């Protein structure tokens, strides 16, 4: 058997393009008034020469180590995890069961790579994102990247591939997650750059464009890009390690609070002052102006507002809009000829549905869903319905006039009731359960309908030959 390095599918990191050699866009000159500003992330050619951005299968990279994002019990069923475990072999599973078992959110732990081209795997658990706990999510994500790099440094892992730890599957916004990732890696390389030869940021179709947009802010490739970054960096770029700064949780402890008033110029040293009174005064002077003592609102809400300039509802709309636009972009690059030919949507539905519906959804429209010949083996899971609704609600809800479900089963009725009662309450009034095709003809003229033949055949078999439905007939009457 050929060694791993000789396998055709293994990718050598030396063949990847370094960040400092990637093509630069054209940047406009810095706006007047910014001349005095200094970038917190200056142009460093030495750091850029250690960085690569690559889109592909991380399990194929021939590095000393790779970072694997998973769940707390290391049994996450994602495509990336499946490939890593499949290629590493059963020995990886045995080591996890005997030595690791569980990893907490934000932690990172090391195993051997076994059958992988990489010698080691660093497993870490990214946070589940909730806008109510923004600060906790940011801190946990920072810990994931920082701890992974620290383990690599301690184990002399000089070439490392880092996957996107902030995943959409855990609800983390790709944009804000990329900022934390890039700045944490930048700060670590500033301090311990000599410990690494190459750091590969492994992307996929969902986050490649985002990394190419965010990375120049933290790793500018020339002086013009550094100038561009100054006016485009977010207000919060973390501390000297890239860690999110939470002022509300910083409390200053005085070494000798009794003499703080004098040191700060608020007292006269030669004047006789009661020490108890001075202690209270100096403490109030030092802590009273701190956010911790001023009864400010929820710091997560404050930070969220500072980050986006909007409330929680507006932030959610912005994130959904961004996700939809990314999916729309992907849908236009996919080949859906085979799907369109079968007229069958589920499994590949989301991208295909977005491509078909995007130009239609700006005007009033009606949706007809045929549940014909559906069995227990191909029911649409509730989780999939919820996912689709969360993505499509932003674009498709406004002009939807009616949603007909034809040939429903008992399960369909139950799932529809549950979904419209607890998730999509705003479309409940537009939903109509239809037992037979004839009802549609009383609402929509036949020449506007393109009904598949198997639906018509099934309807004739179950409901008999077609007949004219009187006006004002409700679905329940059929």
UniProtKB/TrEMBL annotation:
Concerning Gene3D superfamilies, the annotation shows: CRAL-TRIO lipid binding domain (3.40.525.10), Leucine Aminopeptidase, subunit E, domain 1 (3.40.220.10)
Coiled-coil positions are none
- Where in this chain does the record put each Macro domain? 38-219
Similarity remark: Belongs to the GDAP2 family.
Protein name per the record: Macro domain-containing protein
Ranked from the top, the taxonomy reads: Eukaryota, Metazoa, Spiralia, Lophotrochozoa, Mollusca
